[in-house]
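Anyone else keep sequences and structure tokens together like this?

Example one:
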Amino acid sequence: MSIKTRLSQALCISLLVFSSYGYAESLSLSLNDSSFTAGDILEVIVTANRDEFEETHADVYLAVQTPNGSLHYLNGLGLKFINPPNKIVRLATAWPIQTLPETTLLAFEVPRGLPPGTYKWELTLAKTGLEVSEVAQPKNWLVRVSVTLVLKSSYEEWPEFYEDEGIVTAGGEALEETSRWDTVDSADTVAFDGMSSSLPPSTSAGSADKTAGDSASSCCDDGDFGREPLPLSPSPFPDDNEMPVSGTLTAGDIDDNLNFAAFQRYMNKQLVDSSLPFVDMSDRVTLQIVDDQGLGVSNARVRVSLPQESVPRVDTYAGTDGRFYLFPTFDGVMGSQVDLQLAPPEDELGSPSSVFNTTLDLEQLAEDRSVTVTLPNAVAALPDSLEVMFVIDTTGSMGDELHYLVTELRDIIGAVQARHQQVRMRFGLVVYRDKRDTYVVRDFGFTDSLNDLQIQLSEQKARGGGDYPEAMAEGLAAALNKAQWREGNVARLLFLIADAPPHDENLKAMLEQVQIARQMGIRIYPLAASGVGDKAEFMMRNAGVLTQGRYLFLTDDSGVGSSHQEPSVSCYVVTHLNELMSRVIASELAGQRIEPADEYILRTVGHYEAGVCQESDIMPPPDQSTDKAQVENIRVQILESFPVQVRVVANGYFSDGCEKIDQINTDRDGNLFTVEITTRSEGEICTEAEVPFEEVIPLAVKGLKAGVYTVDVNGVTDRFELEISTTD
């Protein structure tokens, strides 16, 4: 069978595919190489398997994503038939699906002058009879494959690209940021129709209707073939030695709610920094909401109030696994009893047939402080919609990784759409810098157009900043309060991508935004880039715990960017970032944690098992003697927080290098807090010199009346005064 005949059978739909990989059981694309320069021969190989389709006909859409993020659809068989961005047009209408054996469908010489960067081609077979606006939703796809290549270039071939990026100028000076990516005049453009195919002229786009008969005419009925070819604009990548390719960045993650005891130890160690807005989470209660079959009720409505109150203190959604973590102190429900009202997400108005009302006695909980509640007449169902918001720090310090992040995020979004085609999806973007920069916050809101989001992402550049903290609180506020989030059984995720914390004066404001996200049922997944320090890690991990997300962090395994600080966690696995973020989203949609396959794990740290860090097998001997620690002085600190929090800082000395803290026990009798710190000896060979120690111990002050209180730590005392009651 000739190439000409095969092109006719396939309606020429794969004629223009640039690719390095991409496959599905029903359709696959491959290429003879993964990177190219001008003058290289590019060969495209396509296969199609009719047996994998239930449908007999499909509408065909072919689009190319250029390095600047623009997605252009084709309505004919030639590069001159590429349409402007955002204009979705069909390549073929009601194509009769047929089997196409592995075939080299196209071979051509890559022309000079194309802007360097990553090109992605997407081929979609969709249900017939759709409005073109419906093509953006995966639930309407039969199959989509997307494949990429990296086109390398040089300054001599594309000087405008390098000069506009501030890499080099004729005078050797860097240029300031410009906005000319959006409007490139004719002097700075390269036409698409410079490519020449090695296929016979009879199979070219201009003669497709002559070679493919009636089928070919249906592939070309949506466009104007006489218009001028569309130009390409430069791509926002730093240089031809660092072309961002998806799957480059590496990352790990920790679910602090799964490792809550370790997280509490981490929190206690941070108490020495008085600038941090500490949150008392030690009283966490786990609610597991299930149906009659024991399955978690995704996005069950959760309302928590104090007895005799008509307005709930907490009004939110459980996770997609039916789990909700209640933090009584943080949530302002500090009484001994709380009222719960639980309902399925589709029954938010409170139908008596499915709403469950009960009173929870917080002082009579089991040791693990967990409660399972069965909702009557409820049927567990996975989320039917997905909303993902990206909040990204675009200050200058993010420059070393922003280009890669943009490429990764575009690939992640495309992969999620392809894997979850029955879920309706929306994606949003907010970028922020800092005061006195060109902008503080740019809010793009939500869109169901992947093309729009990809273009928005690709237009971002890392500029400004100056000092270390940035406008993180303001960025979160825009994402949470301005965007129109949907309610109901929706998987709601917010990825906070940053390398710096808010300014000290805005740390509390950030926690207020986290509280808003918590009430809206939005899971925050912070992603720490290079440069993240202790304060940023603290704020981001708090955001993840309080909203039932996870803390994600880039690692040095990729070699991209500056050095990445090791997080204060005892175990994690390293995978590529795109795999991790896709897996996080898939876990939310599946209502259960999904672990990486072994072949995706690049490195393992500590004793990791399904997200839980296992304790060391080496335990101290049970018969070790203990004694009271030698405490020299203490000081009581009252934190500027709501609700009020009090801690005592104890300083002392170990008698030698083998003495370690064994236990810290706190008790209260009236207005007297008694703290006992005991030590144990570990090891046989010890240094004889005294070793200083400092321990920070939180005091449980909720429910106390205003007054003066005394703290005794191993015989050393201090006093503090509560100016207001903490009973409310």
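And example two:
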Amino acid sequence: MNNLKTFFLISILTISILAVEISADVLLLNDGSEYKGKLLKITENTVFFNTSGDSVIEASIDLIKKIDLQKQRLWSDKKMASEITDPVFEKYYNFKIDSSKFKDPGCYYIYWNTEYKHISGSRWKITQTMLKKILKKRSESEGIVNYYYFDEYDTPSILFAFSIDPAGNLHHLDDNAMRSESLISIPQYENIRRYRFSLPETKEGAYIFYRTETIREYNDSKMPFYVQQAFREAEPVIHKSITIDVPDSMPIIYYLTDASAVRSEPVENNKRRIFNFVTENIEGYISEENMPPAVKIFPTLYAGLEKNWNTAAKNFSREFYEKFYGSEISKKDEYKKLQPLFDRIGVSEKATQLEKAHKIYDFILKNIDYADVQPDYYGFTFNNFDLLLKTMTGNQFDKTLILIGLLKIAGIDADFVLCKSSARDQLINNIPVIRQFDGCLCRIKIDDLEYFLAPYNMTMPFGSIPSGYQNTTGAIIEENKMNQNMERPQFKFIKIPAADSVYKNGYKKLIIMNVNSDDSIDAAEINEFYGNASVQARTITLQSEEEQKKYFEQSVAGIENNAELKDYSFSENLSDTLLFTIKQSYKIKDYVLSASDVIKAFRIPGMSAGGFKFSDTDRRFDIKWYGYEFSIIHAQINFPENYEVYFLPAAEKIEIPEAAIAYNRSFFKIDNNIVFETQFSRKSDFLDKKNYDSLRSFYENIAKKSEDWIVIIKKEIK
């Protein structure tokens, strides 16, 4: 192929130059063809590329997707640390560190800077520089580096990467130790990627020094400029900084959650404004069980362009409505392409609106696969209906788009609700950037009742709100305030409610236990799960029969090692109820301790209690509680008629008033039955670290009480 002349309308800017050491330049065409060789020259409209032998490809620029050019990395010809003239390296290599400030570090992050520099238009250069020193063997894995980038928006480069051994010898990155890989396996969402490379000789005493450079095309609609960075790491940080470098005409707005811990250093230089956010000599943190998210407990920077929420609403609304209705030019009702899918659902015309909504929601849960791809990984945008119908796969945004389209065909208006999980802290109102959000819901109103729908979780009942979105701020684009021309778009901010049921996240258990004359017991359990606990419990319906049986065998073995599973069952995964029930029955031989068949002692099976994995040291961070908000256990124990109760454990009440946690238990007897009941409740998701000792004592007491014995004795003996 000596002359390749096909013309398409693609900008020359699509040519990317990657700073990776390869054996030859690589020419990649839009049709997927790939050629290795050498770039000869680029004229106004044509690229001349020499392949193996004397063959020369003459290709229109419009035909080319990208050209990867062979390029040696900076310092690649240097062999000793003394030859490196980089200012950062000269200042921080062999930097004197007061080790007494830090407790048992595995490594030091000596210098860590990420610079966001505006180039022109929507183009930015993001440069990250890292210098670290390995102190102990446990940190030798620091030599494995992950460099993340977006395939659609980024041109990534590794400017240099090497390690320095204790003798000062440089060990450069070998391309054979580097690979590019996608983090998403679903083609329609394959955007975020990473270079993963391993530096040689990263042993105790070695330094690691590398710099990456990413040219990013920020998109105001799908991927606007936004920075969110926590200033704390698991190992000590000597210097960590974020730099934002913009023209003096470009307004930047930022927010620091702890301005006392992060130094802000604005500088004006040559008609540019440079914002430096710096932390120094920060102790590493030791991870603790049930830690709150980093942005809630560590100093965090949020930054974006100083625009307003109306601009954000306009940009995002365009993305949504162009996919929903079509572009302003075509003015098609794109959502009507869902009509064949709607016909498959079989919605009765005589059904009420609520019945129609239930049917559509249930169909989407069970027939459209969910792709767990966050919008920040793919973009705040949507796939078109043609692709979604072809693949029958969607992430949160796309499954919600389909739901809204099907509801509209059914005559039900619905709103798209942007959500921000409580794990990402509260919405920063003065940073009007859509990337603060990380998910979505669909809102409908029927008969003056409001329902929030999450059609992306196969076990999420109709109207059940994911726990992370409850009591958070959402942003709505209301259908009746928008049109295809995107006139006066705006967000309406709302408070997403919590579950309105008293049983919003927990379970109730009923145990029926029979004490047999041969000292065995037969027991049956009925477990009722509510709210988020119900969502989790329903995952059993997605397993195979073999997996389900194994689950129940392990469940009863967890009660007692020699427990024999007799039977099990569970509810259907119905989206029209918040309740989910699991039943199991089992037999345990030789469970009862017997003295000459006169006195018998036993415990209630499955009642051994525990809590967090507690340590003996003081708690450093507050506690984020991810477990149940309530549990109620009711047990009825039946024993032979010729026995009577000799000893019952006392009633107990254990509380942590300042943390709104309570536990109660009671025993009482009726004829040849013993009735036992416990109730646990909590009303807060976060517990102050000062309550850690109280919480540990709380669970220790519950655990001890759960080991109490019940004793019965033959009537004639007493």
